[in-house]
Structure formats: structure tokens, C-alpha cells
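Lab notebook, design round three. We kept the backbone fixed and only want residue identities now. Task for the bench partner: fill in a sequence for the structure below.
Input C-alpha cells:
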């Protein structure tokens, strides 16, 4: 029994009773049909429900996002640093926010900002009331801000502000 030779089949492993390599490939492909079909259905449903963010286009963004708060905070700090006004401005209202995924995240935000009673050279106060009467000034600003939130990196690419009394 030890020296007995094993009987060899005249068929290759995929060949059994007249099956060739093409038949074996077809059998394997049949086994993949169901998982591929389920994957396709999942992708279509997610796209319909807007779970997939498309590259190359801005999408309306919820205003309560954590990243949005830090982006708007960066914007107002940058505005105050660049402004020649004696007083600090603060964000009164986030009017609109849109986002676009690129190598980071681009936010297109429109905010209403107002002049406060706090001067730039004063120490930072927890809250600064808005100016009233003749010193009152409100602006509507639209800004394109590029951010890499996981690296704490922010940069303003474009910004324009106009008096809030002028229609947007």
C-alpha cells in the first residue's frame, strides 16, 4: 500500500464531466452576483439620501456643526485683525453656510457681523455688547474659508463685506 501509485484523473481540477475553464469562471461569477447587487443597491440608496458628498460642488451645511463654529470663530478673528476699525466686531448671525470637500474642507459662509463696544486694544472680555445709536454698524460678509480641521489649519481665500442695509 505504501508503494502503490495514486490514480490520476484525466481531467484538470476545474474539469469535471465536460466542464472547461469558462464554466468554472461562470460558476465563480454567479457567486459574486448577489454581493455586488447588494453593494450597488446600497450605494444608490445612500446617494439618494445624500449620505455621499460629491467632490467639486458646494452643499448646504447645517449651521450647528462643530467645525462650522471654529471656522466662523477664525473668520471673525481674521476680520478684526485686518480691520482698521477701533472696535471689535462679533458675529450676530450665521445666514448661510455651504461646504465642499477638497483636500480639506472649503466653507462658503455668509454672516452678519456687528460692531461692539469693546476696543481692539483692551483686554479680551467674555462678552462685548453691540454698539447702539450713531456708533452702530452691521455688515453682511461672505467668505470662502479653506480648512483642514484635523490639522487645525484655516485660511481665508476670499472675503467681501457690505453694509447690512444694502440688499444682499
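Proposed sequence:
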Amino acid at each position: 500500500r505504501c508503494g502503490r501509485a495514486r490514480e490520476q484523473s484525466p481531467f484538470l481540477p476545474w474539469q469535471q464531466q465536460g466542464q472547461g475553464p469558462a464554466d468554472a469562471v461562470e460558476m465563480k461569477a454567479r457567486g459574486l452576483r448577489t454581493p455586488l447587487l447588494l453593494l450597488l443597491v446600497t450605494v444608490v440608496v445612500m446617494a439618494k439620501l445624500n449620505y455621499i458628498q460629491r467632490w467639486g460642488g458646494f452643499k448646504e451645511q447645517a449651521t450647528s456643526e462643530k467645525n462650522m463654529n471654529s471656522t466662523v470663530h477664525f473668520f471673525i478673528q481674521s476680520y478684526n485683525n485686518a480691520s482698521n476699525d477701533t472696535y471689535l466686531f462679533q458675529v450676530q448671525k450665521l445666514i448661510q453656510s455651504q461646504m465642499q470637500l477638497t483636500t480639506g474642507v472649503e466653507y462658503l459662509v455668509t454672516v452678519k457681523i456687528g460692531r461692539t463696544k469693546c476696543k481692539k486694544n483692551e483686554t479680551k472680555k467674555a462678552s462685548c455688547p453691540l454698539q447702539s445709536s450713531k456708533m452702530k454698524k452691521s455688515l453682511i460678509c461672505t467668505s470662502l474659508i479653506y480648512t483642514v480641521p484635523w490639522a487645525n489649519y484655516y485660511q481665508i481665500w476670499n472675503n467681501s463685506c457690505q453694509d447690512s442695509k444694502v440688499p444682499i
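Keep this in mind before ordering anything: The longest strand covers residues 87-101.
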